[in-house]
Structure formats: C-alpha cells, structure tokens
C-alpha cells in the first residue's frame, strides 16, 4: 500500500507546486542554465504557472518563447526540440546568441514562426528545415549563416515570410526538379528577402509565375548574373523589387510595365544595356533607382513625366543626354531628383514647377548652361549644379554652385508640451511622458542627399514610422530619429527611439512585433532615404511598471508560495517515512539489475553481461577525478562533460558525465549502455563501468591516450601521422565499423561516424567511440525509418537527410568523409564548403595527383603520389556516393584498405592480429624521434 501512497503524494505535490508539463519544465531549465541575461522574473521552478516573461503556455505546455532584444547570451541547445507543442520561437536581436543552429530544431513539428534575426548564429541552415510543415515565417536575417539555401524550404507550403537577408549564403537560388523541392513551390509566400548574401548564378525564370502572391522580391547585393527573367512581369502582386548590386546584364524586360502595384524598383549598380526602360504602366511607382548601368545613350525619357506617384528618381551615370522636360517638375509628389554624371544639357527650368514637395535636385557633372528658378522657391529647394558650365565664373559663387552641408544630427524639441525630469533610466518622450524607450539602429542604403533640408527629412521619417506602427495597432506613443554618422560601409545609421503608449515600458510580445514591422517598414514607407534594415538593441525594462496592485499581487504569490512550500515539505516528510518503512520490508534486487531496470532497456529482464565492467559509486568516481577538478576536464559535448581519472589499481579511465536534466544526454546514455553491453572488439572503445547514483548518469571507459583522429589531423594532439600511419588508422576504424555492421547481434548503425569519434591509443590503434546516437537493427531489417535526422554536419548521409531512411550505408558515407580527411587533413565543412563536394568537383583521374594538389595534406609529403593514395581517393569517393546502393559495405571497405596496405608495403594480417607491443615494435622505424620521446614519457 505504501508505494502507491508514496506515488500519489509525490504526483499530487508536483501538481500543487508546478503548472508546467514535466518535459517542458526540464527543457526550460536547461535553456535557463545555458543562457545569460534571461529576464529577471525567471525565478522559481514553474515557467507556466510563474508567468515567466516571454513564455506563453497552453494546458501546461510551452507554446511560445518570445525573447526578442533581451540581451541573451549563449547558444541554442538542441534540447529545445523536446518542446513538442512550441508554435512560436522569437529570439531576434540578441547579438550574444551564437553557435550553429541545432539540426534537431527540425523536430519542432508544430512550429509556425521561427525568428532568429539579428543574432550571431553561424554554419549551415539545417538541410531538413523544410520538414517544419506548419512554418509561416522563417526569419534568419543578419546572422552569419553559410552554405547554400536548403532545397527543402520549398516544402514549406504555408510559408509567408522567407527572410535570409544579410548572411553569407552562397550557391544558386534553389529551384524544384523532379522530386527535389525549390523556392518556386512557395506559392503562398509574400516575402523573398535574400539580399546581401553571396548567391551566384542566374535568377531562375521558374521562380516567378502568375499564380504566386509575392509582394517583395529582394535579391540585391549578391553575385547574380544573367538577365532579369521576363516571368517577373507575371507577378502582378509585387510591390517592391530590388536587384541592385549584382552583375545582371541585358535589357530590362518591357513587361515590367505590367507591375502596376510596384512602389519601389531598384536596379542600380548592374550591367544593364539597351534602352532606358519605358515604365509608364507602373502607376504606383514612387521610388525608382536605375543608377550606374550601361543603357544606350538617349534623351531624358518623356515617359517618366507620366509616373504620377513618383517621389524619388535616381539615374546617376546612365548615359542620359538632352534637356530635362519641364513637365517632370509637375509631378505632384516629386521630392528628390538625382541625375549626377550624365550628359544632360540646355536649361534647367523649375520656375513654373507645380510640385510643392520638391526638395533636392542633384545634377552635378552634366552640361547645363542655364538655370531658371522662381525667387520664392529659392530657400525651399536645394539645387546642386557643381561641375556644369552654368557654374563657371562669374556664376561660381551662386548657391547652386556649391554643395550644401547636410547635418542629420539634431534633437527635435517638443512643440506642444514641456519635457519632464524623469527618474531612473526613463526618458521624456516627444509627447512629454516619462517611459523606457525601445532603441535600435535603422541603417539606410546609399546614396544620400546633401541637403539643407535634413531636418525636414527626419520629420518625414518619423511620420512614416508612426503611420506604420499605427497601421499595425502597436502601442507606440511617439518616435525620435537621429542621424549621427555613416558607418564603415558608407551606410547612414539612424538612432531610433520608440516610446510606449499607455504604460512606461514595452512587453516582450510588443518588442517582437516592432522588430517584425521594422523589417517590413523598410520597403513600405521609406521613400526619403531609400531602403533600410533594422538592428535592435537589448531592452531590459520589461518589468518597468510598479504599482500597489502589483505589490499586493506579489505579496499574494509569496503567501501562496509559502503555504504551498509548507504543504510540500509535509508531504515529503510523510513520503520519506513511508519510503523508509517500505525499504525495510522489501528485498533489494541486485544493484546492477536495478540500475539497468531504471534505464528501461529493451531486455531489462536479463542484465547485460558486461565483461569486467562494474557499477561504481559516486564517491569512487569523485575520488578518482579529484572531485571533478578542472585539471581533469578533457572535453565536453551535448551530453555533458568528460573527465580523466585514475582507479586505485593505477588504470587510467575517461568518465562521461551526463549533464543533469539533459534530455539529449539521457537518450545518449541509454543508447551507449545498450550498445556497449554487447560490443567487445579491439577497434571499439571498451566500457569499464557505469554510475548512476544521486541523480547522476556516468559512463566509464578505458582512457585512450592520444585523443581523437581529428585532434591529430588538426595538430592539437602533437601526433604526426605520416601516410602509412593514416592507412593503419583507416584500417582499424573500418574493422571496428564492419564488426558493428556484420558481427554483432543485433547489428548496430553508429550514426555519428566522424574523425572526432575515432580515438587513437598510445600505439595509434584506432578505436570507434561515442555510441550515443547509435541504432540497433534486427537481422531482418535493412532500413530504419527515423522521425529525425541525427549526426554531425559534413558527415550526414544526404540520402538519409532527404528520405529519413537510415541504413548501414549511412555509416559508410560518414567513413568516406573520414577517408577524405585522412587524405586532405581538412575539416568536412569549412567556410560553408563541404569537403566531399570540393574533392568531387576538383577530381581528375587523368592528371597528376588526381588534380587535387590544393586539397591534399602537405604533411604527408606529396612530392610524388604516396603508394595507394589514388586507391584511397577512389575508395573515399565510392563511399560518398549520393545513393546508398552505390556505396560499398564496410566489409568491402576493409578488404579494399587491406589491398591498399599491401601496395604501401604493409602486411594487413600482421596489423590486424598484432598486439600493442608487437605493433609498436614493428613500427619503431616509422616514428619520428619527437613522438618516441613523448610515448616514453607517458609510459
């Protein structure tokens, strides 16, 4: 009876104490520990019941994490994938968030919005990001993501916003082909923000068709070539088109006239030829920039006088000739005209202009002979004619023959109220209300206007921002814009302050939405300075409001917490007495069997036979690691820390200590116990024992002295690997994997084959390690269907990524990459480039060294081709074939490496059967003096 009472009391007490689901509670605790600068009210053990700032829940499950611009620092843990009900994740504008985007994020199957803009993430975008079928917004702008845009994004049929702006992405724009998806499949998308990357190739014509609903196509500042596809004219919903800063050629398609909703068209800084395009049909066009192209020399297009919505026209260095038609200045909204560096001549006549908005005309370096203006407009319009004949003496002293000095730095004084003296960090807003503003930087694209009217433009920008915030029903009371300087790239940086309405601070949801609106406002309302992007700052004032009611509410929570805590302690005391009595009544099963039952192994009825392995106490492990001292810390991973220790017998051991509460670590721990309980081979790391006392989960292995193969190839271990040693390492690792695939019952797929998981002992024998991601297979099974892809980028089988079907050939692919590492010394993924792809594109078997001179590792003395190098490259390329059926088995790989060993003058049978002593003796001639001395000192 007592055990049932105990269980009931503990469950009941947990429900009294927390309103958060157990799994979600664990993950949120991990995230809290992994991040610095979490919100100040993230206290207590109940994210949902405690109403943690930025956390929303439904039925005790976390459904939303909205922490934009809170100053978070750290990495995004892969454990977040266990928040199975999460729909909204916004960590935007936390520049201290870095690291790679964990591949496991693709397991958040209910995610609708993923917003990580303005952080410091790097590495490739997970290839399977397209498996998030409910995703509506994918915002990864302004990070350092590398590699190509994943084809799988084309599977996101509900996607509305695709924002990859300002990263380091390269390669072509992905288009569907056969069963391979592409961006052309995103028929519901409104926004393609792909500017400021390194994309190359042409703009695919398939990207555009009449049934898609795009309003923004932003491909600016890439390395794109070719012409604008005429299919762009089919997308009648478009409102903004930006292709500037590429190497596009050919004429501008005439059917752009069909785009009657386009307000912003920027085609500057390309190599366009042919006539200046006739855009008469673009009735909504307000911002047009065709500067710095190679159009045919022609008179100023009369058709531009028909663009009644035009506010800004930029045609610098476009070969224009003749006289500007006076009718151009009758456009009612025209504000800015930039026509520098052309061949325009005759008279510039604005005396009869009916436009009341005109502020700047910049026509430097043309051939203007006369200038006519109305005296009453002299102080309202900045005209710049420097470098024209009209400015030759004696006219050189005229205002229009100098460049006005723009001064964007100003502080607008309130017009209808008296500024307040505010307390703390609060600031008096333009409407004279003390509050905590949200601040950031709007970065404006050049060119900029040299104008005395800068204050006027700033006022317009503030009005534009407020219109945008009001249209989105955001609680923004007022804004202030200040332009201090240009940045190192020549962009104008605007300090932006936004003041809250109705209270003295913003909440996390509003900050998140403001960032979203500003990322779109760039193209909706900014007709004055041109397109922008936003960089948000940290906002630490989410708990700014402090009232009596809040204090009372806080007091109530304290009383409630105290009462709940007292009840909880009483229940624990009762449970403890009950547990003690129950312990005295029952017989304890063997300690080892209970431990394995705790792990819930598949064969928990029979304890696995661990040859020589035993159960260690926590105190024993603490003693042999000197209380887990920093000096004994030798590594870490997603599961936790690795420590070196020494048993009383003098045996060196390595202890993998799972991080407490880690979902990932618990799964890996169980997997390694299951695998290593029945694996015994000289080329597989040996399990010495285990410990799971006091809530700890630890695995104890033999200590492998020389670290990982990756350490040796990168020079971290100080071990030099010549060609013959590399062959022996490859042979040993292949034998270990072949044993797992063919001789263990049931067979085992390692699933994380990489050079970091191949360890080298004191005699450089290779040992396959780290079975946290491994999968056992029944003898009848050839394929395992997985719900998620696991592994390390650069080693993951592409067929496994696409199909989610895991086979032993997935390990073969990873081993093929390891062989390429042995040959090249390079990492599998560097600067966004995959090693396997680089070798494949450079390989030419008809040339010396297979034309791989730049890729081969010089430390293996490549003056001439080492014996068997060509065969090793051939074998590696067979292993990394795209389709698994085209790859060899690991048994076949072992045989091929044995043939290569014979070519190199080594006896594979002797290597396979030798003991460590005989191996060392047989290899003495090959070890450099420095290595021999090191080994002697370690003995």
Automatic annotation (TrEMBL):
Residue positions binding ATP: 656
Catalysis performed (reactions): L-threonyl-[protein] + ATP = O-phospho-L-threonyl-[protein] + ADP + H(+); L-seryl-[protein] + ATP = O-phospho-L-seryl-[protein] + ADP + H(+)
UniProt-annotated location(s): Membrane
Signal peptide (residue range): 1-22
Record InterPro entries: Kinase-like_dom_sf, Leu-rich_rpt, LRR_dom_sf, Prot_kinase_dom, Protein_kinase_ATP_BS, Ser-Thr/Tyr_kinase_cat_dom, Ser/Thr_kinase_AS
Pfam families linked to this entry: LRR_1, PK_Tyr_Ser-Thr
Any single GO CC term annotated in Swiss-Prot or TrEMBL for this entry: membrane
Keywords from the named record: ATP-binding, Glycoprotein, Kinase, Leucine-rich repeat, Membrane, Nucleotide-binding, Receptor, Repeat, Serine/threonine-protein kinase, Signal, Transferase, Transmembrane, Transmembrane helix
Record-listed E.C. numbers: 2.7.11.1
Protein name: non-specific serine/threonine protein kinase
Species whose genome carries this gene: Populus alba x Populus x berolinensis
């Amino acid at each position: 009876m007592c055990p049932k009472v105990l269980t009931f009391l503990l469950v009941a007490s947990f429900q009294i104490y927390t309103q958060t689901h157990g799994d979600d509670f664990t993950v949120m605790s991990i995230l809290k520990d992994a991040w610095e600068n979490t919100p100040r009210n993230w206290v207590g053990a109940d994210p949902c019941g405690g109403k943690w700032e930025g956390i929303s829940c439904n039925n005790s499950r976390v459904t939303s994490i909205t922490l934009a611009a809170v100053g978070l620092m750290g990495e995004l843990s892969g454990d977040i994938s266990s928040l199975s009900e999460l729909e909204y994740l916004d960590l935007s504008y936390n520049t201290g968030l870095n690291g790679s985007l964990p591949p496991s994020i693709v397991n958040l199957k209910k995610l609708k919005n993923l917003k990580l803009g303005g952080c410091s993430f790097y590495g490739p975008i997970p290839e399977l990001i397209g498996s998030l079928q409910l995703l509506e917004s994918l915002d990864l702008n302004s990070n350092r993501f590398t590699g190509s845009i994943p084809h799988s994004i084309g599977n996101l049929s509900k996607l509305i916003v695709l924002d990859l702006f300002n990263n380091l992405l390269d390669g072509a724009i992905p288009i569907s082909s056969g069963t391979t998806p592409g961006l052309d499949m995103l028929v519901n998308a409104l926004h393609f923000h792909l500017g400021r990357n390194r994309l190359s190739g042409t703009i695919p014509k398939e990207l555009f068709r009449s049934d898609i609903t795009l309003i923004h196509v932003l491909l600016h500042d890439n390395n794109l070539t070719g012409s604008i596809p005429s299919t762009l004219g089919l997308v009648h919903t478009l409102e903004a088109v930006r292709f500037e800063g590429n190497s596009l050629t050919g004429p501008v398609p005439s059917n752009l006239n069909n785009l009657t909703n386009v307000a912003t068209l920027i085609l500057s800084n390309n190599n366009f030829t042919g006539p200046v395009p006739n855009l008469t049909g673009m009735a909504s066009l307000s911002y047009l920039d065709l500067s710095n192209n190679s159009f045919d020399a022609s008179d100023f297009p009369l058709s531009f006088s028909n663009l009644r919505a035009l506010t800004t026209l930029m045609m610098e260095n476009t070969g224009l000739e003749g006289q500007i038609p006076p009718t151009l200045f009758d456009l009612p909204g025209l504000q800015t005209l930039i026509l520098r560096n052309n061949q325009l001549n005759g008279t510039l006549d604005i005396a009869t202009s009916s436009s009341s908005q005109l502020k700047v005309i910049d026509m430097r370096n043309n051939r203007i002979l006369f200038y006519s203006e109305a005296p009453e407009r002299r102080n309202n319009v900045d005209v710049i004619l420097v470098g024209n004949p009209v400015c030759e003496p004696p006219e050189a002293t005229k205002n229009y023959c100098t460049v006005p000095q723009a001064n964007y730095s100003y502080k607008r004084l309130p017009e209808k109220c008296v500024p307040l003296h505010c307390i703390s960090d609060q600031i008096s807003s333009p409407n004279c209300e003390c509050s905590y503003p949200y601040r950031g930087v709007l970065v404006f694209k050049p060119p900029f206007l040299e104008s005395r009217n800068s204050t006027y433009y700033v006022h317009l920008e503030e009005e534009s921002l407020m219109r945008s915030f009001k249209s989105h029903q955001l609680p923004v009371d007022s804004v202030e814009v200040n332009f201090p300087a240009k940045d190192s790239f020549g962009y104008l940086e605007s300090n932006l302050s936004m003041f809250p309405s109705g209270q003295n601070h913003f909440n996390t949801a509003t900050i998140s939405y403001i960032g979203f609106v500003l990322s779109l406002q760039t193209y909706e309302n900014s007709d004055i300075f041109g397109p922008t992007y936003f960089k948000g700052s940290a906002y630490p004032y989410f708990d700014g409001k402090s009232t009596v009611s809040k204090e009372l509410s806080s007091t109530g929570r304290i009383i409630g917490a105290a009462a709940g805590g007292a009840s909880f302690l009483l229940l624990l005391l009762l449970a403890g007495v009950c547990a003690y009595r129950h312990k005295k009544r029952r017989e304890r099963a063997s300690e080892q069997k209970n431990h394995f039952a705790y792990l819930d192994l598949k064969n928990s009825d029979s304890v696995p036979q661990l040859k020589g392995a035993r159960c260690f106490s926590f105190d024993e492990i603490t003693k042999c690691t000197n209380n887990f001292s920093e000096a004994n810390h030798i590594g870490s991973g997603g599961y936790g820390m690795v420590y070196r220790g020494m048993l009383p017998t003098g045996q060196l051991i390595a202890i993998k200590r799972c991080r407490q509460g880690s979902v990932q670590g618990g799964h890996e721990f169980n997997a390694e116990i299951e695998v290593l309980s029945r694996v015994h081979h000289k080329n597989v790391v040996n399990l010495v024992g285990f410990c799971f006392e006091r809530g700890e989960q630890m695995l104890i292995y033999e200590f492998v002295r020389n670290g990982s193969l990756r350490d040796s190839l990168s020079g971290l271990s100080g071990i030099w690997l010549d060609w013959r040693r590399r062959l022996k390492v490859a042979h040993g690792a292949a034998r270990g994997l072949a044993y797992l695939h063919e001789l263990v019952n049931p067979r085992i797929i390692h699933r994380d084959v990489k050079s970091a998981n191949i360890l080298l002992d004191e005699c450089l024998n290779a040992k396959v390690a780290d079975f946290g991601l491994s999968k056992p297979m029944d003898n009848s099974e050839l394929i395992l269907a997985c719900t998620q892809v696991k592994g390390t980028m650069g080693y993951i089988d592409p067929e496994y990524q696409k199909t989610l079907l895991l086979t032993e050939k997935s390990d073969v692919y990873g081993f093929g990459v390891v062989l390429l590492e042995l040959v090249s010394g390079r990492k599998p993924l560097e600067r966004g480039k995959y090693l396997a792809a680089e070798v494949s594109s450079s390989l030419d078997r008809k040339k010396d060294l297979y034309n791989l001179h730049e890729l081969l590792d010089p430390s293996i003395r490549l003056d001439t081709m080492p014996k068997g190098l060509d065969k090793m490259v051939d074998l590696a390329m067979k292993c990394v074939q795209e389709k698994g059926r085209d790859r060899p088995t690991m048994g076949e790989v072992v045989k091929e490496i044995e043939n290569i060993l014979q070519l190199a003058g080594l006896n594979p049978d002797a290597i396979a059967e030798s003991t460590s002593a005989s191996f060392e003796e047989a290899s003495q001639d090959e070890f450099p003096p420095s290595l021999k001395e090191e080994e002697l000192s370690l003995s």
